[in-house]
Design a protein that fits this description.
single chain, 183 residues, alpha/beta, Rossmann fold, 8-stranded mixed beta sheet, globular
């Protein structure tokens, strides 16, 4: 696992020890950023099921100003912090150990809007539609912002959720990437 492009291109990232997380492969990560970028001029990203932090770190490396990382697993939080330290991105990030529902409630109270939200929940616990509805109902995504969902190919997401419409959808083996844009 590594940073694919941008400021920290080629820098290796640590994976979360054990089998509790499923890291996004470099091939899929590169494809995601080719679809949504590939480079950015500022903005705020949310990596909601951050795991090792690879998606949020890639976003910062490619020009996103700041990223918030959330995961409920203690080992994942430790790994994110180590990866951010290795990339020298600690000043451009916030890391929280929390479940997704509580994290979204806390973010709603802060009245933050994101340019990019990455949703890569464990395949057995996916509740993507509901989470996107909460995000949109509480204005957590800026206009023309994108929600990147990584999910099992057997999960079929609707083409529209509220004012978010499917921008692109690609299949990589048993993984599907569905990207919504908020209009």
């Amino acid at each position: 696992m590594r940073v694919i492009s941008g400021e920290k291109r080629g820098l290796p990232l640590k994976a979360v020890p054990g089998s509790s997380t499923r890291p996004t492969t470099d091939k899929v990560k590169e494809s995601i950023f080719n679809m949504i970028g590939p480079y950015f001029q500022g903005g705020l990203a949310l990596d909601l099921y951050a795991g090792s932090g690879g998606l949020g770190i890639e976003a910062i490396s490619r020009g996103v100003e700041r990223a918030i990382f959330v995961d409920q697993d203690r080992k994942a939080i430790e790994t994110i912090k180590k990866n951010l330290q290795q990339c020298l991105f600690e000043e451009r990030s916030e890391v929280y150990r929390n479940d997704s529902a509580r994290a979204l409630k806390a973010l709603i109270k802060r009245e933050i809007t994101f340019s990019f939200i990455f949703l890569d929940p464990p395949y057995a616990k996916q509740n993507i539609e509901s989470e996107i509805s909460i995000i949109l109902d509480h204005d957590l995504l800026e206009e023309n912002g994108m929600i990147v969902c990584e999910h099992d190919t057997s999960v079929k997401l609707p083409s529209e959720i509220g004012k978010a419409k499917t921008y692109r959808s690609e299949i990589y083996g048993d993984t599907t990437i569905t990207i919504y844009i908020y209009k």
